[in-house]
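TASK: fixed-backbone design
INPUT:
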């Protein structure tokens, strides 16, 4: 699982999961619930 997450983070250009969530939110992938 960790390697899969690391690969996804590398694709998005983020350093950790928190940044990935923020990037997804800003890109419109998350609607806040």
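OUTPUT:
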């Amino acid at each position: 699982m960790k390697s899969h997450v690391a690969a996804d983070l590398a694709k998005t250009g983020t350093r950790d999961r928190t940044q990935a969530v923020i990037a997804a939110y800003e890109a419109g992938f998350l609607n806040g619930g």
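COMMENT: Helices lie at 2-12, 17-27.
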